[in-house]
Design a protein that fits this description.
- This protein is mostly helical.
- It has a single domain, classed as Ferritin, CATH 1.20.1260.
- The chain contains 4 helices and no strands.
- The radius of gyration is 15 Å and the shape is elongated.
- The protein starts with a helix and ends with a helix.
């Protein structure tokens, strides 16, 4: 599951980076820094998870999950909200498994990352509601 998490983080990095470049209009300037920040957060998450996976003796994937940029602003944000919901669901499962296996470090890593994912979800949901 850790490689699945890395693939999802890489997908988010690319997806959010391309969205901040492709998003047009006045609204673009109001949120461009937010998209950049979220993309950079996802990069840090991928690195943390990869380091943990390497420590546990496995090789991190280099293949991102499928990327869904979208054509319109609304489509982009719906894709982003879905990606964040799917990620939070997976991370809760990883935390459950880590706890059952007594892997406190992995559980703590994912608790920290999951907090960021909630913030990302709030950011995208707020933009979608406007």
């Amino acid at each position: 599951m850790l490689n699945q998490a890395i693939a999802g983080e890489m997908q988010a990095i690319i997806q959010y980076m391309w969205q901040h470049i492709q998003w047009k209009g006045v609204e673009h300037y109001a949120v461009i820094e937010g998209f950049k920040k979220v993309s950079i957060d996802e990069m840090k998450h991928a690195e943390k998870i990869a380091e943990r996976l390497w420590y546990l003796g496995d090789k991190p994937t280099i293949q991102p999950a499928p990327i869904h940029v979208g054509e319109s602003l609304e489509e982009m944000l719906k894709n982003d909200v879905k990606a964040e919901v799917d990620t939070m669901t997976m991370y809760k499962e990883i935390m459950k498994i880590a706890e059952a296996e007594g892997d406190v470090a992995t559980k703590e890593i994912f608790e920290e990352i999951e907090e960021d994912e909630e913030e990302h979800h709030d950011f995208f949901t707020s933009l979608l509601e406007k």
